[in-house]
Amino acid sequence: MEEKKTIPETQKEEEEEEEDWGSKAWKLITKVREKAPLIQCITNYVSMDIMANTLLASGASPAMLHSINEISDFTPHVHALCINIGTLSPDWLPSMKSSATLATQLNIPWVLDPVAVSASDFRLKACLQLVGLKPVVIRGNASEILALSTASVGSDKLSKINRCGRSSLKSLAQACGAVVAVSGAVDIITDGKRVVGVHNGVPMMQRDYATGCAVTALIAAFLAADPLRPFEATASALSIFGVAGEIGMDLAKGPASLRMHLIDSLHGLDQKSVFSGVNITSMP
Ligand SMILES: Nc1ncnc2c1ncn2[C@@H]1O[C@H](COP(=O)(O)OP(=O)(O)O)[C@@H](O)[C@H]1O
Ligand SMILES: Cc1ncsc1CCOP(=O)(O)O
Ligand SMILES: [Mg+2]
């Protein structure tokens, strides 16, 4: 007869928590599909199409609306807001600030994508002003989050060996009062206390422009579904997007067809694929 092994309590709890992410993510995507939240995106010219299609495929309702003349009428009615500085210009910045200010005042969750934040002084200053307007989530790639960390927390305060490591990420999240997500082969998400890694997605997603922008918009949709749990919403959105990328990759021939199949997979995602695909682990 096989010997029965006993699992220590703490390990059991960790395993249960990790197992539970599949149902958390499924509940959130189901809620997005049921609620069809209205997501305002003030974004760049490159990402508008994939962002709108990603939102629509997830069940959300996208609105790419950025004129300063419309912000005060429109932003109060949205369920979440996504601000992306990819093709920032002086005439769009006031709209971003005005929309972010209104969202924060009205408790509408909003997410910031600091695209190429270190490309210019103008962009960095604008981004820091937007961070000051209290995004609920900041999602960028490693170089963008490192640049923000250095500018917000101060390079002297960051460990030289661990400049974009977990402790500096936690410091950034605490300094900004936001959930911070760094995307990559493994996405790292922290709320300043907890840290999780999302092990989904495929490397080909990096060969497509604006996949990062698209997943930031999906985070906004998940925030709309569960505004009180931004950490869970962010990790789940990144994981669901990654699972859609994995399924899409099985049918894709390259970056262009991956784009199409990822969106199709997101649209058709079922409970079985979510439960078996979501791979989120706690990190020390
Ligand atoms: N090497 C990789 N393996 C798996 N998924 C990846 C990889 N690189 C990026 N991704 C995924 O691609 C999406 C965009 O991330 P990233 O390329 O880091 O953003 P950005 O486009 O803003 O630079 C995220 O969902 C991320 O998880
Ligand atoms: C190429 C480019 N130029 C300005 S914004 C943009 C898209 C960036 O998209 P992502 O950050 O998702 O790769
Ligand atoms: Mg990006």
Automatic annotation (TrEMBL):
Coiled coil: none annotated. Residues 1-11 have a biased composition (Basic and acidic residues). GO terms for biological process: thiamine biosynthetic process; thiamine diphosphate biosynthetic process. GO terms for molecular function: ATP binding; hydroxyethylthiazole kinase activity; magnesium ion binding. Pathway: Cofactor biosynthesis; thiamine diphosphate biosynthesis; 4-methyl-5-(2-phosphoethyl)-thiazole from 5-(2-hydroxyethyl)-4-methylthiazole: step 1/1. It catalyses: 5-(2-hydroxyethyl)-4-methylthiazole + ATP = 4-methyl-5-(2-phosphooxyethyl)-thiazole + ADP + H(+). Keywords: ATP-binding, Kinase, Magnesium, Metal-binding, Nucleotide-binding, Thiamine biosynthesis, Transferase. Residues 1-21 are annotated as: Disordered. The keyword DNA-binding does not apply. This is hydroxyethylthiazole kinase. The lineage of its organism: Eukaryota, Viridiplantae, Streptophyta, Embryophyta, Tracheophyta.
